[in-house]
Design a protein that fits this description.
Blueprint lengths: L9 E5 L3 H17 L4 H4 L2 E4 L2 H10 L4 H9 L11 H11 L5 H14 L5 H12 L11 E7 L5 E4 L7 H8 L9 E3 L2 E5 L16 E5 L12 H10 L3 E5 L3 H7 L9 H24 L2
Parallel strand pairs: 1-2, 1-7, 2-3, 7-8
Antiparallel strand pairs: 3-4, 3-6, 5-6
């Protein structure tokens, strides 16, 4: 496990947002790639949270952004994330039960540990399938995956320097509290890395140029938004761009970010949005 960046290079931050948010993200990544922008080649670090952990890992392990995008259009890579009304209420009760961000996350962790969900082994198999050819940590990319300790509420990151297999790290980052069981990795239990901050932009502190692709900008509870975290890094001197769904993308995505039928439209909207932003991203990524 490692801490945040300590150099002055370029960081790509990929946030969480459920199956539909992940589809939108693949569209953005593909749109930028189609515009000739080599995000992976220009990144000194890739920080992935939840859905961003899945697609960040696949990209870092060599899957072209266009391939992930086309799989969304074909409604492949389906994530069966059924959320009941009772689960939603338990989640919100835990997340909104404190005005303190750290205590809110600790409440979520306790709720997740107590919840009755599908077996952890089922979730592990799903994540392994979604990772496709990303079976081991990439050797040429500094990939960092976020997760939160279910017992302490502390955010940590996994990377190739640690002893946690990539699939276990991603499963931990995607363990939505109350909906999925806390994931076991390194003898500890973990919940979704986006439970406090949907993209964990603060982990890019110290990097000179930062591109954030965040399907969701706020997590339920008294937590910092992606906009707040972006402003903080900008105030510290980072050249940072936050890309989140525009109006057309939000319409395409709808309110239920687990709705499988929404994924193709969300991916299309992400691609269109990225095409419009290509010049801006090029200036950021190249420093010109």
């Amino acid at each position: 496990m490692s801490d945040s960046g300590d150099n002055h290079g370029t960081a790509l931050v990929l946030g969480g947002g459920g199956p539909v948010g992940g589809a939108w993200m693949t569209g953005v990544l593909a749109g930028l790639a189609d515009a000739g922008i080599d995000l992976l080649g220009g990144a000194d670090v890739v920080i992935g949270t939840s859905a961003g952990a899945i697609f960040g890992a696949r990209m870092a392990c060599g899957e072209p952004a266009r391939k992930s995008y086309e799989r969304q259009l074909a409604r492949a890579d389906r994530i069966d994330l059924r959320v009941t009304a009772a689960q939603t209420l338990r989640f919100l009760w835990a997340a909104l039960g404190s005005r303190d961000s750290q205590r809110s996350v600790q409440r979520l962790g306790r709720a997740a540990l107590a919840a009755r969900t599908a077996p952890e082994s089922d979730v592990g198999r799903t994540i392994a399938t979604l990772l496709r050819d990303a079976t081991a940590w990439p050797g040429n990319t500094d990939l960092r995956i976020t997760a939160i300790d279910a017992h302490t509420g502390v955010l940590e990151t996994f990377d190739a320097a640690g002893k946690i297999p990539l699939a276990e790290a991603v499963a931990a980052s995607c363990a939505v509290p109350v909906v999925r069981p806390p994931a076991t990795a390194g003898g500890r239990r973990w919940i979704d890395g986006g439970s406090r901050a949907t993209a964990n932009i603060h982990l890019a502190r110290g990097y000179r140029r930062v591109l954030v692709i965040a399907p969701l900008t706020t997590a339920p509870g008294p937590h910092p938004s992606a906009q707040q975290q972006t402003a903080e890094l900008a105030a510290e001197g980072a050249d940072i761009l936050l890309v989140s769904p525009d109006r057309a993308a939000r319409r395409a995505m709808g309110r239920d970010l687990t709705a499988d039928t929404r994924r193709p439209a969300a991916a299309h909207a992400g691609h269109a949005q990225a095409t419009a932003l290509a010049d801006t991203v090029t200036r950021l990524w190249t420093g010109c």
